[in-house]
TrEMBL record:
Role summary: Catalyzes two sequential steps in the biosynthesis of coenzyme A. In the first step cysteine is conjugated to 4'-phosphopantothenate to form 4-phosphopantothenoylcysteine. In the second step the latter compound is decarboxylated to form 4'-phosphopantotheine.
Record's signal peptide: none
Segments for region (Phosphopantothenate--cysteine ligase): 11-222
Protein name listed in UniProt: Coenzyme A biosynthesis bifunctional protein CoaBC
Family stated for the protein in its record: In the N-terminal section; belongs to the HFCD (homo-oligomeric flavin containing Cys decarboxylase) superfamily.
Length: 222
């Protein structure tokens, strides 16, 4: 499949949540299903790109023609992403945990009738910002995602500058009245924030959102 508008291009995609271990049997996670990132990897491969997909723990099949690297924690994802570079485009869709437990406990925490343990957290590396700030690593087109529950466009515009990204794809992940959400759901409503302004896409199935983003990537690289 080395035909198509992205033939000869290397596209790096991150997807899914990260798991941040507490002890051998417990971790901190989030609600990301990985669906949007996997759909983008699949769409890029269909357009002829060589695709590396760095994925957190998800229950999804590897899309055809995609090289998948599985990781668990944010730090593992950071290492895998850096090892997979250089790329022409990086699309950072993963819902990377901002924090991890400061100390990993080597043996299972026990109740022992005493007070519950206090979890002390520490900050994870920001994978997107780290690459955005490093000219030796930065792909020509660097795309981040912003999952917000409020003031979506203001935070996304700010995030674009702060993380050194070219585009931020913003979506509203606030919960609906039925408890349903973008995270884990089949559809997404995104706004593409670039240096030139904002493009609003209609609510679409995630694979169609992916096609729209990949189409714009192909145009930008032309
Ligand atoms: O700051 P926030 O988590 O909202 O930023 C979201 C964007 O940054 C996404 O593209 C996500 O993949 C990326 N990110 C990252 N490393 C982190 C946190 C977020 O690459 N530690």
């Amino acid at each position: 499949p080395l035909d198509g508008p992205l033939a000869g291009r290397h596209v790096l995609v991150t997807a899914g949540p990260t798991h941040e271990p507490i002890d051998p049997v417990r971790y901190i996670a989030n609600r990301s299903s990985g669906m949007q990132g996997f759909a983008i990897a699949a769409a890029a491969a269909r357009q002829g790109a060589r695709v590396t997909l760095v994925s957190g723990p998800v229950h999804l099949p590897t899309p055809p023609g995609v090289e998948r690297i599985d990781v668990e924690s944010a730090r593992e994802m950071n290492d895998a992403v850096r090892a997979a570079l250089p790329a022409d485009v990086a699309v950072m869709v993963a819902a990377v945990a901002d924090w991890r437990p400061k100390d990993f406990v080597e043996t299972k925490l026990k109740k022992r009738g005493s007070a519950p343990p206090v979890l002390v957290l520490t900050e994870n590396p920001d994978i997107l910002a780290g690459i955005g700030a490093d000219p030796a690593l930065r792909p020509g087109l660097l795309i981040g995602f912003a999952a917000e529950t409020d003031d979506v466009l203001r935070y996304a515009t700010d995030k674009r500058r702060r993380k050194g990204a070219d585009w931020i794809v913003a979506n509203d992940v606030s919960f609906g009245a039925d408890g349903g959400s973008v995270m884990g759901g089949a559809e997404n409503t995104v706004h593409i924030v670039t240096a030139d302004g904002v493009e609003h896409l209609p609510t679409l199935p995630k694979d169609q959102v992916a096609d729209a983003i990949v189409e714009r990537i192909a145009l930008a690289l032309r």
